[in-house]
Amino acid sequence: MKTHAQAVVIGGGLVGCSILYHLAKLGWTDVVLLERDELTSGSTWHAAANIHGLHDNNNISKIQYYTMKLYKELEAETGQGCGVFQPGSLYLAQTEAREHQLRLQEAKARYFKADFHNISRDEAERLHPLVDFDGIRCIMYEPDGGNVDPSGVTQAYAAGARKMGAEIHRFTPVTATIQQPDGSWIVETPKGSIHTGWVVNAAGLWAREVARMAGIELPLQPTEHQYFVTETIAEIDAMDRRLPSVADRDGEYYLRQEGKGLLIGAYERDMRFWAEDGTPLDFAHDLFPDDLERIEENMMRAISRVPAVGTAGIKRVINGPMIWSPDSAALYGPVPELRNYFCCTGIIPGFSQSGGLGLMSAQWIVEGEPQYDMFAWDLARFGDWADKAFTKARVQDQYANRFKIHFPYEERTAGRPVRTRPAFALQKDMGAVFGLNYCWEHPLWFAPKGVEPQETYGFTRQPWFDHVGAEAKALRDGVGVIDISNFAKYEIKGEGAGDWLDRVIANRVPSQIGRSCLTPLIGKRGGIAGDFTVTKLGEDHFFMVGSGMAERYHQRYFNEVARPETVSFKSLTVDLCGVNVAGPLARNLLSRLTQENLSTASFPFMRSRRISVAGVEAIAIRVSFTGDLGWELYVAQSDQVKLYTALLKGGEDLGVCPVGSRALLSLRVEKGYGSWGREYSPEYWPQEVGLDRLIKMDKPDFLGKAAYAALADRAPREKLVTIEIEADIADASGGEPIFLPDGTPVGRVSSGAYGYSVGKSLAIGFIKTAHAAAGTAVSVAILGRDYKGTILAEPPFDPRGERLRS
Ligand SMILES: Cc1cc2nc3c(=O)[nH]c(=O)nc-3n(C[C@H](O)[C@H](O)[C@H](O)COP(=O)(O)OP(=O)(O)OC[C@H]3O[C@@H](n4cnc5c(N)ncnc54)[C@H](O)[C@@H]3O)c2cc1C
Questions:
Q1: How many beta carbons lie within 10 A of that of residue 595, not counting itself?
Q2: 195 CA distance to ligand 1 centroid (A)?
Q3: Residue of 347, 345, 329, 324 lying closest to 396 (CA atoms)
Q4: Inter-residue contact 747 to 771 (CB < 8 Å)
Q5: Which of 170, 161, 189, 160 is nearest to 39 (CA)?
Q6: Which of 403, 348, 404, 406 is nearest to 377 (CA)?
Q7: 134 confidence band (pLDDT: 50, 70, 90)
Q8: What is the pLDDT of residue 56?
Q9: Which of 205, 336, 413, 637 has the lowest tally of Cβ within 10 angstroms?
Q10: Contact 236/410 with Cβ under 8 angstroms?
Q11: CA 683/CA 369 separation, integer angstroms
Q12: How far apart, in Å, are the Cα atoms of 121 and each of 12, 52, 135?
């Protein structure tokens, strides 16, 4: 075994082998994979190994298509069979909501130029004569769907990696990982140690144990999962082709051909955790005892849909472990608190995603950033608040509801509340319906008296539509109070603080006390890694506000610029609460509670001051994400209730209204404002989202300067535009594809909402530059149907920013 390597991958399951292969493919051939047993000895060997292309998330669809294509290429490249069967998949809708979901996916497939299309019942019966399609209102067909051989695929990745020079050592358990002062690692095994630049934790079921070797906890929890395979079914035996798989998600089971029988698997409500206190080290090619009773309800639904299942004997039952994150997406990316330690674990649909995950992981390690925005998978979306109790509650919910439809604005309730602010109880009494942002409970909307504060979900407009509208209008007509405590807040202080910050952000740090600036943070590929408001509070003293959900994600970037000992960098997200007082009467309201002169002459837009409001010391910044006249006020947590109450009481006669984040979404969309994670992501260039004007290339250096310089003169591939849509019963919410009237795909929605104060259904979206001119007629696939839209020349609310500056 070699003693030095560029990277050591821990775990020879499907995912570890894919990462090894892709590292080598990107040129890192001095890489080693260590497997404690045989390859595939975690979840991989016993998987049903179904594969699909389309996903609700556009980028995950991209990597799933990449993976499906890769399996065939791997076979050709390595000579190792992957056992790829692609007889197609049938997707069934029993409910209207499921039909909307499938039709939206069909529209997305048109956008990706992928094949996922509606078929008639006759056609479906011809494709799968064993299925009873009664009660099915819509059927989609994905010709590429199918399954692979779990061991074949893993061995193919391994063979491909070896061919390029990578080493694989089986029966070589990693026993310790020790960080070195220079950021490299010593990886210890009973066969010797390896000094490596990067450690990759791909230890699947044992990812928690391997992470603990480096001193970190991962929010992961294994569960049992079962499927069974029937004896030979005569009709299948008599066929000269393979049957498509069946995704009857309303029935909560999956079904496909296996040999001459059928394979049926289920995510049952009465699920079982496994290995809560740690995965046993002696577990390898093992299974649990069968417990088919637990999945009986799902089985009965499968039998009523495919009666042949009911008469065939059961040949084999597999009850094996899989390991879940709290939202069932992968835990992937470099651990922000460590140097050069990468995780890629907690993967449920590993066979649909292994190739893309391997590629994205290798890109991140070798090139510094993946090509797609994969925040939905980034382990930094969880903080240490994702403890064992939270993880278990969420995993239970994810497992038991695996096939439930994910509606726009969905907020799962399991395991909550975890992080609350002092005003939580007060807001609850006021009728607040809460959502989560980095696990903080924050008001989404407020139910008026007599209305149940209850969320409902659907693709169409929901009962909260009017209540959110009333909040948005109250703010635009008078004044609203928005709890913005979930924004991330940072303090940078000490001699040299401004110089350090100037080397991080792309805009110039404000030079005068009391000034604020907006700034992008530039990523490794020159895209938008973040957007912040930076305020100079005093000499060598700065206050910065950014995306709350991205706080741990941004930490990676802040770590990149060496900070002099004289400069302290502190998160104030927990310590401070925030409130945005906005609307044309915001000044009237605030003036009642403070002695400060709030006139524009004295306190103009983008200026800040420490003020006393209602007897509370606050950092006041004259900005508002609503696009209206407004101030953001940041106060100590202990003062939150006092300030919030004073604002609402003090403005009763002005019609002051508590406003939730759902109304804020509508207000910012009316104003065409982008938001991190939607419009701003490392995938988009600054000139594509209109942030290039904030980049100061004449500064000596800042994060991502060289990468941006390399693309600064390039024409935008796409443009961010605002679209008015002739929608009636539903609005865009993000992800919907956009077409020209002749059906040519030209873009996708990044954010959507009804603009209550302008009376229009609106979307912000990316459109290919050649088609992004104002006035262009487009269609937006809401509910999977084409709704007419027009690209607007400017945002419909206050395009010249007069209200903001008034
Ligand atoms: C019953 C069942 C059915 C499934 N069906 C499907 C399906 O139809 N489609 C689909 O896409 N997915 C399916 N899955 C999920 C799929 O199996 C997983 O997504 C995939 O196997 C995860 O692979 P992995 O490489 O991340 O982890 P694992 O397969 O768990 O691999 C981890 C590896 O790390 C090794 N390791 C651990 N600790 C150490 C150490 N200290 N030193 C060295 N090596 C170590 C282990 O021995 C193991 O080989 C199914 C899972 C189950 C349980």
A1: 8
A2: 26
A3: 324
A4: yes
A5: 170
A6: 348
A7: very high
A8: 83
A9: 413
A10: no
A11: 10
A12: 43, 21, 11
Q: Ligand 1 centre and the CA of 680: distance in Å? A: 34
Q: Report the percent of the chain where pLDDT is more than 70.
A: 100
Give the integer Cα–Cα distance in Å for 453 and 472. 18
pLDDT tens digits, residue range 375-386?
999 999 999 999
Mean pLDDT within 541-565: 97
244 and 145 Cβ atoms separated by less than 8 Å: yes
Strands (E), 466-555: 480-483, 488-493, 516-522, 528-538, 541-546
Mapped onto helix, strand or coil, the DSSP state of residue 245 is: strand
CA distances from 177 to 41, 196, 215, 762 (A): 21, 10, 9, 51
State the Cα–Cα distance between residues 136 and 592, nearest whole angstrom. Answer: 61
Residues whose CB is less than 8 angstroms from the CB of residue 775 and which lie 6 or more positions away in sequence, other chains included: 790, 791, 793
Are the C-beta atoms of residues 608 and 514 closer than 8 Å to each other? yes
Nearest CA to ligand 1 atom 19: 350
pLDDT given for residue 287 in this prediction: 96
Quick one: angle between helices 58-78 and 350-367, nearest 10?
90
Residue minimizing CA distance to atom 52 of ligand 1: 47
Residues belonging to the chain: 806
233-259 pLDDT, tens digit each: 999 999 999 999 999 999 999 999 999
Atom of ligand 1 nearest to the CA of 348: 19
- pLDDT band at residue 552 using 50, 70 and 90 as cut-offs: very high
Q: Structure tokens of 703?
A: 């994060």
Residue with CA nearest ligand 1 atom 18: 350
Expressed in angstroms and rounded, the spacing between residue 14 Cα and the centre of ligand 1 is 6
571 CA distance to ligand 1 middle (Å): 36
Q: Whose CA is nearest to atom 27 of ligand 1?
A: 204
Distance 323 CA to ligand 1 centre (A): 8
Dump pLDDT digits (tens) for 777-794: 999 999 999 999 999 999
DSSP per residue over 709-759, as a string? HHHTTSPPSEEEEEEEE--SS----S--EEE-TTS-EEEEEEEEEEETTTT
Tell which one of 257, 351, 398, 399 to mutate to probe ligand 1, the residue whose CB is within 8 A of the most ligand atoms. 351
The reply to whether omega before 448 is within 30° of 0 (cis) is no
Residues 428-444 have a mean pLDDT of 97
Out of 13-27, 49-63, 207-221, 442-456, least confident range = 49-63
The residue nearest atom 10 of ligand 1, judged by CA position, is: 349
How high is the pLDDT of residue 17?
98
Percentage of the chain beyond pLDDT 90 is 99
Q: What is the mean pLDDT of residues 349-353?
A: 97
Strand partners, 722: 764
Report the atom number in ligand 1 closest to the C-alpha of 203: 34
Closest approach atom of ligand 1 to CA 50: 8
Q: Which residues line ligand 1 (CB under 6 A)?
A: 10-16, 34-37, 41-44, 46-50, 173-174, 202-206, 210, 225, 227, 318, 320-322, 347-352
- Block residue for tokens 């508590």: 658
Nearest by Cα to 184 from 197, 201, 199, 200: 197
In this prediction, residue 376 carries a pLDDT of: 94
Q: Burial, 238: exposed, middle or buried (Cβ in 10 Å; 0-12, 13-18, 19+)? A: exposed
pLDDT at 317: 97
Burial 629-668 (b: 16+ CB within 10 A, else e): bbbbbbbbeebbbbbbebbbebbeebebbbbbbbbbbbbb
Rounded to the nearest 10 degrees, how much is the dihedral formed by the CA atoms of 41, 44, 45, 47? 150
Residue minimizing CA distance to atom 12 of ligand 1? 349
